[in-house]
Amino acid sequence: RLLQAHGCSVTVVPGTATAEEILRHGPDGVFLSNGPGDPAAVTYGIEAVRNLIGKVPIFGICLGHQILALALGAKTFKMKFGHRGANQPVKELATGRVHITSQNHGYAINNETLPKEWEPLFINLNDQTNEGMKHTSKPFFSTQFHPEASGGPTDTAHLFDLFIDKIKKSKESAGT
Asked: What pLDDT shows up at residue 12?
């Protein structure tokens, strides 16, 4: 809905789609959506994302965030209680702004295992766990929370603007 509101044509592919199947659609960017369970069990998704990195801008949320991290070689861990509900405070590290977010997950990314060219983007103010990450120079980023759920109600809608901007810049640098 939010991608379409930004003028995007959205093609939904199954979670089991390979990178090759996804790239056959000629996407300008790939949005990795949410889902349930242990991200390490989604080996087919991790492999697909590993093969998409460097080919198109990527924005992941929730399970998509965790799968992106695993595709990079980072590690996830099972949380004692997880984050549930529409009132989870996260801090955007670049601006210091606090956003109220909607979340429903039981796994988190271990920041210490992020590759050196990746950095945390958001942290959870209750337990300091990773709530987002970004590549330092490439058009890839993700959030643990659901920016589409309007927890704030529009606190994190700017992330869709950021994704569209990364797609536009990627297309400009490719000359298309």
From this structure: 96
Strand-strand pairing, 140-143 and 58-61: parallel
Model pTM score: 0.91
Q: How many Å is the Cα radius of gyration of the chain?
A: 15
- Catalytic site includes residue 62: yes
Catalytic residue among 62, 65, 105, 135: 62
Is position 146 annotated as part of the catalytic site? yes
Question: Residue 175 — pLDDT band, cuts 50, 70, 90?
Answer: confident
**Residue type present at position 176:** T
| Buried b / exposed e along 6-28 (16+ C-beta atoms within 10 A) | eebeeeeeeeebebeebbeeebb
Of residues 79, 73, 85, 83, the one with CA closest to residue 49: 73
Which of the residues 65, 83, 135, 146 is marked catalytic?
Answer: 146
For 89-126, give the DSSP string.
EEEETTT--EEEEEEEEEEEE-GGGS-TTEEEEEEETT
- In this prediction, residue 176 has a pLDDT band, given cuts at 50, 70 and 90, of low
**Residues 103-126, mean pLDDT to the nearest whole number:** 95
DSSP string, 15-32: TT--HHHHHTT--S-EEE
* Average model confidence (pLDDT) across the chain: 92
